[in-house]
Amino acid sequence: MQKRQIQIGRPVGTTTYEEAPAVAFGAAVREERAKQGIGQEMLSDLSGIDRSHIGKIERGEHMPTLALILKISRALKCSAAHLMTLTESKLAKAATAKSES
Question: Which backbone phi and psi does 4 adopt, to 5 degrees?
């Protein structure tokens, strides 16, 4: 019996994008970046991520991978856990606002 080949990446037609967490994570990154007085261009330089990609992440148009989350957190000199905590807080606020309306 032959070994199955491992294919890198996702199977064709699958997606990992979910709007609510992507938007909440983007808002958390923007909040932390603004708190530190860092522009998108500077964050791009510090993280090694293209500035337009940083913009897509902050607008919630892209769901970043773990590797990108770690690069962003290192560039912002905070832990990935801190960014996740901010993201969870924003998700909880959005859920509360949605249930109240």
Answer: -75, 140
